[in-house]
Fold this sequence. Notes:
Elements: H1 6-21, H2 25-31, H3 40-65, H4 76-92, H5 96-108, H6 115-133, H7 143-152, H8 156-165, H9 169-176, E1 184-188, H10 197-200, E2 210-214, H11 216-222, E3 230-232, H12 235-243, E4 248-253, H13 259-271, E5 275-281, H14 284-296, E6 302-306, H15 312-315, H16 317-323, E7 329-335, H17 350-353, H18 356-375, E8 378-388, H19 397-404, E9 412-414, H20 429-437, E10 445-446, E11 459-465
Amino acid sequence: MSKLSPARKLALDVLMEADRRGMYARDVLSSRASAKAIDQRDSAFAARLALGVAATQGILDELLDQFLDKPKKVAPRVRMALRISAFEMLYLHTPGRVAVSQGVELVRSGAKSAAGLANAVLHKVADNVEDFATAADADESERRLVRLSRLMGMPRWLCARIMASFDTPEGALNFAGNLAPAPLALHENAFATKPDPYLSQLVAPVFPGCHAPVDAQATVSSGVFERAAAVASDLNAQLIATAATRPGRCLEIGAGRGTKTYVMMCQAKRAGYDRQHTALDLHDRKCDQNLARLHKAGIKGVRTVSGDACELDAVLTSFDAMLGEPALFDTVFIDAPCSGTGTMRRHPEIPWRLTEKDVTTELPKLQLTMLKEAAARVAADGELVYATCSVFDEENTQVVDAFLASPEGAGFTVVPLSEAQILQLPEFEQAKKLVTLRQNDRGLFQSVPLNADSYDGHFCARLIRKQ
């Protein structure tokens, strides 16, 4: 009987907690104190297993179910342990004898009576994993798609859509097969009254406020987040938030817990802009979390409001009553709900929570409604900035074009993001260069993570209301 590795045990505990609480595995990993009780190497391996299994769970079940007599009757913890072992064999190419032995011990740790079942099933997986990876069991007409789906660890519909969305198969494979952890970037608090000890020893920012990349483990253990001295924010997300920062009144729609609120307020201070910021989110709890972090960071002057962004007249009733007319804003920034396909390395569960209808119909319909509703709140010469963390055209360019073709969008025109006011300031020259590299001929911003060093996939369109 081999000794169960602490990394595999931690990975199983994390996955079970995430499943039970409906959380992302990465968030559970970050919150578990027990992850710090094992050495750094084991902690990294546990994260690799937990995030990998979360990303490929449907494919792992397809493999396992071939050898389970009653797949629906397998206990959740037993199935999760079997997934970990199958993931090792299929994606990490761990030798069968090691993966099987550890898998059996992992099952035994929570269900001794299922150890025999685990031994039998995992030996069959080890014997057949290569044939499964090459889709030898699939019909010849579908073999290529099935093979790619298994290689990428994604549902077949999503795999097919990704392959169709890229100019070359290599680009699609580089994107979908990029399972390495995403690099971590920080945005530094511009309102801090004294230098932060951790931030002070980092190299110079990539552009004002943005430190990237930084060591994830050292950053978390430094306490910089608890001090509100910085927030974790993807570099491309910071570029978009920076470009959306202007003087005057801003309505931020879809503020969530306020990461972009934090970035925009900090950039406004660095640029010397006088502005009023209103952050809107559907949920009261997120509004409260946003304000709490801002106050802890010493960032004042942000108002929050909760409600449905598809019904802005109802949400902004008090604002309108105070002014005696509908409130208009110099900037309306929409951080739209989306598929999140540009952030799958951070949230690997996304492929298995999405449906094709979400991408093709439901989300674009919601996004277009939000754009049309927000348009009425943009002042003359004001900007309507639309952003997603999707890589799919249906949620990005197609939504923008549908808006421009609508009566509500008739008064707007697309202007390159790189021409944003703040990016013309000398100190933001590097940010402007980075934005320019990521925008197309129309000035629409799109980033795609194609390798381990790439930051997340984000889209942004900057629309200006004509006089």
